[in-house]
Amino acid sequence: MDPNLFQWKTQGQSFLGRLQTWVHLLDPTLLLSSDAEIQKAHASIASGEKLDKKDEPARILALSSVHADTGAPLPLVFRPPALLPISSPLFVASLLPHSSVKPALFWQFLLQSYSAGFNYANRNSSTEPDKKTSPRQLLLVAGTVSYATCGGALPQIFISRLGVRSPPVQTFFRSILPIPLSAALAFFSVFTVRSEETERGIQVFDDDGNLVGISKAAGEKAVMETALSRAALFGATAALPNLLVLLLKRTRFFQRNSLLVAPSRHISAALALGLMIPVSFSLFPQLGTVKREELEEELQAGAAGRQLFYHRGL
Q: pTM for the full model?
């Protein structure tokens, strides 16, 4: 196992411990580091020497920039610190009350393309025979983006095609429907883009980091946990600004100053996304665990200990 992965074990299994770690790992200034600096930080961890406080910046840089399975630097735009600055304007734009279907499809396409790319770049690749993207995987990503784009634009499609003019009905399509829709599409994106992990299985390790074998059960658990965390991220991010705007519209101040509603929606959406990213990433441990009895029968006999570990992906 890559030494960078087992660094997650030192963070403990508590939610607050993981949250504190992710707050540091999501620092956007980490994106300014060069590949040479990242490789140097990763090498210091891979050396096996005991780390102390002075090595903390190197550990944070490696964990936020290096793929846990391959040990190679992640593409710049798909590193965890890049998620907020890139996805924030795309998500805000996708929630706008568009006047027609085309702009809704455009912003949904950008958002869903980036989401699918992020999911693929941060997958578990421990059982891939080579590191090249297969034609089947390309079709999965393309299909996911296409379906998610159309699904994300459904509220605007309904409004435009049905000629909805009623304010309550428009409010439902623009403010209520996007909440479960955003959560469902985020879950769908992870589940389909990373479906090969459930079909092929992923590597599982014992408490000492020794490879036990390839488990489909662990792959299903890893993908399901990640899909749920992503659904929580985008579902909550869609809910907070939309519900806030609905409440603000009832106040006299915003009824007299209606031009402030749109900026309030944009700012609250960006803030909600910034708060929810570390929370959603912390819902499940990055180094996941699976009980021995949950594994395939052929793996249970050779597994030492009551639980095994796997890289969940992000």
A: 0.90
